[in-house]
Amino acid sequence: MTGLPAFSLEQHQAFSGILARAQTDASFRSRLLDQPNAVLADADIAVPARIDLRVLDCAPGVAYVVLPRPPAEGEVTDNDLATASGGTTPAVVIATFIVTMSILVTNVLSTDDI
Fold first, then answer.
1. DSSP for 22-61?
2. Which uninterrupted H or E stretch holds 29?
3. pLDDT band at 1 (very low <50, low <70, confident <90, very high)
4. Count of CB atoms situated within 10 Å of the CB of 1
5. How does DSSP classify residue 51?
6. pTM to 2 decimal places
7. What are phi and psi of 109, to 5 degrees?
8. Portion of the chain with pLDDT greater than 70, in percent
9. How far apart are CA 79 and CA 26, in angstroms?
10. pLDDT in tens, 36-58
């Protein structure tokens, strides 16, 4: 397993509460940015030690693209599986990326910046 374990319903609700509180409580937001593992632990959400959890503070006009980790040697990637099953091609992936980025940029620009 490479990511976080699946959340229980209670953990999902707690996580949603954390995000909501971070919108209105500046000191809590600062703590979440500086010590995300501790904030989640306070809500009974354990982050495995192998995970370097980082919280990014979204700012107007800033968009993030998160790259997937490179596959380990010999590991079959999702793209390999999809291509082998006829599910996608590099052209489809590129087109999806372009559409996704254009939607993201449109959403960023539509926040009274135009």
1. HHH-HHHHHHHHH-HHHHHHHTT-PPPTT---------TT
2. helix 26-34
3. very low
4. 6
5. -
6. 0.57
7. -75, -25
8. 67
9. 41
10. 999 999 998 888 888 888 999 88
